[in-house]
Amino acid sequence: MPDNPNSCVVVGAGISGLLAARELQEAGWRVTVLDKGRGVGGRMATRRFGGASFDHGAQFFTVRDDRFGEIVDGWLSSGAAAEWSRGFANAEGPRDPDGHPRYRGAEGMTSIPKHLARGLDVRTGERAVKVEQVDAGWTVTCESGGTATGGALLLTAPVPQSLALARSGNYALSDGARRQLEDVTYDPCLAVMALLDRPSPVPEPGGVQIKDEPLDWIGDNAMKGISERPCVTIHAGPGWSREHYEEDEKSITEALLSLAAEQLGADLASATVETSLARWRYSWVTSSHDEPCLVASEDPPLVFCGDGFGQPKVEGAALSGLAAADRLLGRAG
Questions:
Q1: Residue 185, CA distances (Å) to 40, 42, 160, 208, 241 in order
Q2: Partners of 301 in beta bridges
Q3: What contacts 24, CB < 8 A, 6 or more positions away?
Q4: What's the Rg (C-alpha) of the chain?
Q5: If DSSP codes are grouped into helix, strand and coil, which group holds residue 243?
Q6: pLDDT tens for residues 13-25?
């Protein structure tokens, strides 16, 4: 049983989980954050190889909400984030800046979740496999055999994963909550990272935002300011990613390099030194829950949040985590 009713286990160390955890801890709660990954961040992910750094999940974020804006101002002041640009090229070519800032992590997108994780009890490499309801709260068991207990449980992973975890033990999720969670859907994204032996043909300021098929995005991580060596990230569109998701890495990589070269009008394959592939099964939210979080149980509290709730993308995920913390703290109805 949890030793403190004002305690919470957060599953998922993406931006939703970390912002919620910070809000709760600042209110005096004991918080434990579990994540299956080697590091924090979820899809705010930066990978390093060959002396280069690649943002291979979320590429940037924007700010429209005042509360999120205040948080981002703190990240900018602390050096965790930086402004990247005020517009990108599109499929038709360069376009004029629109005046709206696009932000990045200072040393890659993971700079921000690493900043948020400081001072929190974050346990990485811990895959949660079972949730059990106890009289006064919850016990989460990990694949390693370790456990975490809390008076409240916050599930922030992509909804299909969170739903499976919620149903893994003795807790009976209500039919209404289950149906609402099953309505949240995602598209996948295949992401190729390519280390180059020369500067890429990606135009300033380092991004081509295509938002189409078969390609969604091409980004130059050196021009972006996070890599000392020239390297690009190529995101396939959701349809192409779904069709080719299970193919072998070599075939996917060759195809996306060829498609990117066609988009940019320059050969990429001959400049490529080394590659890596990321398969994001739950990348784009295609159908979200209307509210910024879902309270599945009031006593003991069980809350679902993440980018599948309310608004999409980084800002939406952040606001969802804040909304979940508000609910647990009694700051929202």
A1: 23, 18, 8, 26, 15
A2: 298
A3: 8, 31, 325, 328, 329
A4: 20
A5: helix
A6: 999 999 999 999 9
Q: What is the dihedral of CA 20, 180, 162, 244, to 10 degrees?
A: -120
Query: What is the CATH T-level fold of the domain 186-286, as seen in this structure?
Result: Polyamine Oxidase; Chain A, domain 2 (3.90.660)
Distances (CA, A) of 44 to 38, 183, 266, 297: 13, 24, 29, 29
pLDDT digits (tens, 9 = 90+) for 65-85: 999 999 999 999 999 999 999
Greatest pairwise CA separation for the chain in angstroms: 63
State how far the Cα of 71 lies from the Cα of 305, in Å rounded to an integer: 19
Alpha carbon of residue 229 to chain centroid = 25
Using the structure block, give the residue that is written with the tokens 């994540």. Answer: 35
CA distance 296 to 292: 13
Fold of 7-45+103-184+288-328: FAD/NAD(P)-binding domain (3.50.50)
Domain boundaries, the chain: 7-45+103-184+288-328, 186-286
3-state class (DSSP) for residue 66 = helix
